[in-house]
Every structure is written in structure tokens, then in C-alpha cells.
């Protein structure tokens, strides 16, 4: 599965109810691929390839870590503690991903 397909799967598993009233940008800098960002705005989710000028949080990882987290095989917190995942910006927002998207 390509990185683009992983993000398509992620956006298809979006929980609009959990995003009600939110206005956030989750940026994913994939070290061995492209950068993508998800724009969450009051119950909607838009996937965009490329960088955002002002992301709420940027998650930095490689393709394998991304695929593991989205498939549910890798716990995001464990990946962070092991140094496989880094965050810049509001790191607490990264914990919201599990509420906004069905993983696994």
C-alpha cells in the first residue's frame, strides 16, 4: 500500500461527530515519501498533499511507522517513546487522532 493509499484509508475512516467544532491541521511529514496534511474543520476532513503553512501539529515518521499506526499494528505512543515518531507544535493534539479516525 502506498503512502497516498494509507492517507486515503485514513480519511475514509474519519469520525465527523468527534470533529464537531474543531479547526485543526494535522501535518504528516513522511521522511521517505511526501508530506500530507489533513484539514479538520467542524466535522469535515480534507486530505491535501504538500505542506501547510501553519499546521496545528506536525508528525514526523517514516512510511513503515505510518502504516503500522494506521493499521493498528503499532501504538502511536509507543512509536513516539521509541523515537520512531516525532511531533512538532501542539503535541497533545496527536492524541486526538485516535478519536478522529478509526485505526486498525
UniProtKB/TrEMBL annotation:
Residues 14-101 form the SCP2 domain. This is Putative sterol carrier protein. GO terms for cellular component: cytosol. It comes from Marinobacter zhejiangensis. It comes from the Bacteria. Pfam families: SCP2 (PF02036). PANTHER family: SCP2 STEROL-BINDING DOMAIN-CONTAINING PROTEIN 1, STEROL CARRIER PROTEIN 2 SCP-2 FAMILY PROTEIN.
Amino acid at each position: 500500500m502506498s503512502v497516498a493509499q494509507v492517507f486515503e484509508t485514513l480519511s475514509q475512516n474519519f469520525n465527523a461527530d468527534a470533529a464537531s467544532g474543531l479547526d485543526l491541521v494535522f501535518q504528516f511529514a513522511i521522511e521517505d515519501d511526501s508530506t500530507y496534511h489533513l484539514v479538520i474543520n467542524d466535522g469535515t476532513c480534507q486530505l491535501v498533499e504538500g505542506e501547510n503553512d501553519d499546521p496545528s501539529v506536525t508528525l514526523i515518521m517514516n512510511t513503515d511507522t505510518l502504516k503500522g499506526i494506521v493499521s493498528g499494528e503499532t501504538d502511536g505512543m509507543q512509536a513516539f517513546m521509541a523515537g520512531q515518531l516525532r511531533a512538532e507544535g501542539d503535541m497533545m493534539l496527536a492524541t486526538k487522532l485516535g478519536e478522529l479516525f478509526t485505526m486498525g
